[in-house]
Amino acid sequence: MLKTLLTSAFLILTITNCHKEITANNYNYPKDTPEWLQTKIDSIATIKYYALTKVYSYKWTEKLIYHFSIPLSSCIYCELYDEVGNRFILSGDSVAQDFMQNKKEKTLIWER
């Protein structure tokens, strides 16, 4: 019951905390995308699991976080990376809630 309640609360925060999206047209992919991220995107571009995937960047606590939004995944924020390409885990509900409430400057980097 508690797990269901927390999951519901997390989903509600996700839906209600949408920020204005900056489109890919405002982003210079070759110039502004780190090499490690371009390599990662190139490696997933033709894999069926990543169909309809979008890659976003956010500013959060003065960090740049990259989010692979994968519609075929059952986990909303499973693939997060920091600015140098290290996997970033939202450890605990309070960290996840802080991320959802305080992320800003949403930029669409790539979409399939």
The percent range for strand residues is 15-25%
Report the helical percentage: 25-40%
Largest sheet: 4 strands, antiparallel
Low-confidence runs (pLDDT<50, min 5 residues)? 4-24
Overall geometry comes to globular
- Chain-averaged pLDDT: 83
Radius of gyration: 14 Å
- How many domain regions? 1
How many angstroms does the end-to-end distance come to? 36 Å
Derived from helix and strand composition plus strand pairing, the structural class reads alpha+beta
| N to C succession of SSEs | HHHEEEHE
Order of strands, main sheet, comes to 3-2-1-4
Q: What is the count of DSSP helices, taking H or I runs of 4+ residues?
A: 4
Beta strand count: 4
What are its keywords?
112 residues; alpha+beta; 4 helices; 4 strands; globular
